[in-house]
Design goal:
homodimer, four-stranded antiparallel β-sheet
Chain lengths: ~110, ~110
């Protein structure tokens, strides 16, 4: 088990006003700009699927799934000016963020 | 915003005995067998990265990230005999599972 190789960064956002289409759009647009950060290998912007089971948490508003080539690239993304600008411009939109950082288990 | 297209199913497992290398290996081996389910487009088996920040939840033991071509394929995976066998054989290993199902937001 190693910390090298592919690094998956999955962020879930809970908005202050999840019913606001404008706020959701503003966050999505912010993430689209953020996706230009040079260390991001690939990304996906999502919303909860329609599935409902006890184990499923569908209370979040937006999912932001990122792949990096390695942990160092994710570290560098955290302080990328594009990322800092995104946080400064969009942080008023969310009330909670949960992040799961994952590396290969094999 | 639509529920068609790519469907991302991200499962986080918390083990009864997270300190047990044998239990972690048993779950990983179970997931490797489960990865043969025919509707799975791609998968990633992971563990928490070394990152530490307030917003990061690194308390889980194993991450199981799946891509399906669409929601129907994920529905069908839920009742696939390979999936049912995995649950029957491995469910004693975990104390908690959280699932986030995500579809495109654009």
């Amino acid at each position: 088990m190693t910390q090298t190789g592919l690094f998956i960064h999955h962020v879930y956002f809970w908005l202050h006003h999840p019913e606001s289409k404008a706020d959701k759009t503003a966050l999505i647009e912010g993430l689209q700009k953020l996706s230009k950060a040079s260390t991001i290998k690939s990304f996906h912007i999502g919303q909860p699927a329609a599935t409902k089971r006890d184990v499923i948490d569908s209370s979040y508003s937006i999912s932001w799934l990122l792949y990096f080539d390695n942990a160092a690239d994710q570290d560098s993304y955290q302080t990328d000016p594009i990322h800092l600008k995104f946080v400064a411009e969009c942080k008023h939109l969310w009330k909670k963020v949960v992040v799961y950082d994952t590396v290969g288990a094999l």
